Amino acid sequence: MSGSKPDILWAPHHVDRFVVCDSELSLYHIDSAVSSELKAGSLRLSEETTATLLSINSDTPYMKCVAWYPKYDPECLLAVGQANGRVVLTSLGQDHNSKSKDLIGKEFVPKHARQCNTLAWNPLDSNWLAAGLDKHRADFSVLIWDISSKYAPETAVATEKVRLSAGDPEGGLVVTKPLYELGQNDACLSLCWLPRDQKLLLAGMHRNLAIFDLRNTSQKIFVNTKAVQGVTVDPYFHDRVASFYEGQVAIWDLRKFEKPVLTLTEQPKPLTKVAWCPTRTGLLATLTRDSNIIRLYDMQHTPTPIGDETEPTIIERSVQPCENYIASFAWHPTSQNRMVVVTPNRTMSDFTVFERISLAWSPVTSLMWACGRHLYECTEEGKASSLEKDIATKMRLRALSRYGLDTEQVWRNHLLAGNEDPQLKSLWYTLHYILYFTVVYNLKK
Q1: pTM here?
Q2: Residue by residue, what is the 3-state secondary structure of the chain?
């Protein structure tokens, strides 16, 4: 989420809901379009789908980043990072009987105010929320908050909390003591937890990518690079990470973290977002500023590098979901190759990226083609007569029946061909009589 341009987040556990966030949070429900006429309050996303606005949250101004709580309950809990560095927990039409009631309105405040650039929930321990902040010479830039803990880490002293409003008994709490503090005197531009280990956090710092191990925060693994924005892990290959800088995307293998294993073609405009497809192996989408084109990089068949000089191969193509410039996009969490894009004026489109179709002929003349997860086969029907079959099929079947090899009773060869072609029957009977009379003639000499 950059400036006032809108961004899109799909609900982690509701495949028919997404939120658009810019100056406010807007929750939409996506549904099939049953008729050509739109219902009141609905927006058309495509010929097949519409979106209905369910709720709006305008309680969190100066939003810079948003992250959706990864667990099912509470289902509509979101963390909002603000321009002053505060992280606020808010909701969209939440159930007040759920456990979210005690979390809504809670704020997490750094020692020194500066912009919050990125947020990331721990996918396993969902009470942990990582926040990446701008640089401050006397403070840390990566703060990990425990949204439910009532005590400071490693002490028995209660975490400092004050009421936001003394007159509001249901006012939120302000928490000022993070669970972990990392990246001193540096800036953090992007974050993501590593799925292979819930204690490992990958951070795009000012001049390097760093892996922090929360079991030993005094040490870190890092590599110097400018590609520190938008770090994201391939959901199907947890050692593969993508990041970007200006118009260039770097692909990293965490097992060989010294340098990128692949650098994608540099674009003329700065990149604004990169995202792995959650339903397709090795498919990366990228978006550049002021563009209506989304570039796709297919690394599904990329081999693991064996030597330092091995350069993986990729297939690159572009799709155009709409005519206007795209502000952001989001892959659908379960529908294959489907995404929703949003323009700067909040116009949205539901779009499916069609797979390349691969064709292959089998040795027995069957035609097969692959599209996405589906494999199709086209063969001739078994009930078709020999006259209707393809000539290659006829030749194969006749060869299997030893057609033309009966030299004693030559006329029987038409039976080996299926006995369905009267011209072929006439031919073999003619040959039979020619041979017969030839033999008789030679015997009379």
Answers
A1: 0.78
A2: CCCCCCEEEECCCCCCEEEEECCCEEEEEEEECCCCCCCCCEEECCCCEEEEEEEEECCCCCEEEEEECCCCCCCCEEEEEECCCCEEEEECCCCCCCHHHHCCCCEECCCCCCCEEEEEECCCCCCEEEEEECCCCCCEEEEEEECCCCECCCCCCECCEEECCCCCCCCCEEECCCCEEEEECCCEEEEEECCCCCCEEEEEECCEEEEEECCCCCCEEEEECCCCEEEEEECCEEEEEEEEECCEEEEEECCECCCCCEECCCCCCCEEEEEECCCCCCEEEEEECCCCCEEEEECCCCCCCCCCCCCCCCEEEEECCCCCCCCEEEECCCCCCEEEEECCCCCEEEEECCCCCEEEECCCCCEEEEECCEEEEECCCCCCCCCCCCHHHHHHHHHHCCCCCCCCCHHHHHHHCCCCCHHHHHHHHHHHHHHHHHHHHHHHC
- Per residue in 290-345, pLDDT tens? 999 999 999 865 455 545 555 557 889 999 998 899 999 999 999 988 999 999 99
State the residue for tokens 């709720």: 55
Q: By C-alpha distance, which of 231, 222, 139, 250 is closest to 187?
A: 139
| Residue 163 scores a pLDDT above 60 | no
Mean pLDDT of the residues in the chain: 84
Q: Which residue has the higher pLDDT, 74 or 124?
A: 124
Query: pLDDT digit string (tens) for 409-423?
Result: 888 888 888 877 888
Q: How far is CA 52 from CA 23, 75, 220, 348, 368, in A?
A: 19, 18, 46, 12, 41
CA atoms of 329 and 342, how far apart (whole Å):
6
Percent of the residues in the chain that have a pLDDT greater than 90, as a whole number? 47
Top-confidence residue, 149 or 297: 297
Predicted local confidence at residue 311, as pLDDT = 57
Q: Tokens 């949070």, residue?
A: 25
The CA–CA distances, whole Å, from 290 to 268, 272, 427 equal: 11, 9, 73
